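Below is a filled-in request sheet from our internal design queue. Each sheet records the structural input a requester submitted and the sequence that came back. We keep these sheets so that new team members can see what a complete request looks like end to end.

REQUESTER: design group, bay 2
PRIORITY: normal
MODE: inverse folding
CHAIN LENGTH: 163
BACKBONE (tokenized):
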């Protein structure tokens, strides 16, 4: 459910960044991304807060097994952390998409997938950590996307590009 909001804000960032660049208003790109990130985080943080305050109640919708519910709480916490990271990273990454540089988009995705796979291999396969650690792969993926997308936008290499 939260992904609907996140992807909608990402699409908005893509369109708005592209529009601003097309108008020659590159200096406003960070401001619009910041505003869209704020809306994205605001939309998902309320639900994430409720889920973290009452995880047993939310999980009870799906099962009555008290042991399963208790075992699932760490995964719920990791997933909400990932969702909050996704709410930011998706918008920033979509800002990169709005610059029109598809090679950079592909490179960011590629690097994020490599880190994701390395994390899965080490944490899940070699260390055999519990399920909530496996869900940490989502956090690693989106954190990598966020860092690389932010770095690219901050570098200014996209400025002056014709769309």
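RETURNED SEQUENCE:
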């Amino acid at each position: 459910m939260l992904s609907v909001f996140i992807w909608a804000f990402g699409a908005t960032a893509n369109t708005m960044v592209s529009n601003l660049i097309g108008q020659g208003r590159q200096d406003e790109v960070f401001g619009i991304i910041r505003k869209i990130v704020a809306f994205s985080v605001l939309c998902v943080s309320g639900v994430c807060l409720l889920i973290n305050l009452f995880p047993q109640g939310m999980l009870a919708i799906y099962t009555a097994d008290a042991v399963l519910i208790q075992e699932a709480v760490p995964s719920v916490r990791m997933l909400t952390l990932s969702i909050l990271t996704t709410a930011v990273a998706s918008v920033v990454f979509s800002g990169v998409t709005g610059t029109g540089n598809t090679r950079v988009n592909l490179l960011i995705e590629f690097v994020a997938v490599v880190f994701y796979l390395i994390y899965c291999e080490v944490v899940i396969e070699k260390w055999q950590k519990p399920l909530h650690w496996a869900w940490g792969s989502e956090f690693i993926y989106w954190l990598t996307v966020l860092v690389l997308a932010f770095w690219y936008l901050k570098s200014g290499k996209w400025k002056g590009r014709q769309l």
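SHEET NOTES:
- Residues 75 and 132 are 4 Å apart (CA to CA).
- The chain has a mean pLDDT of 95.
FILED BY: M.R.
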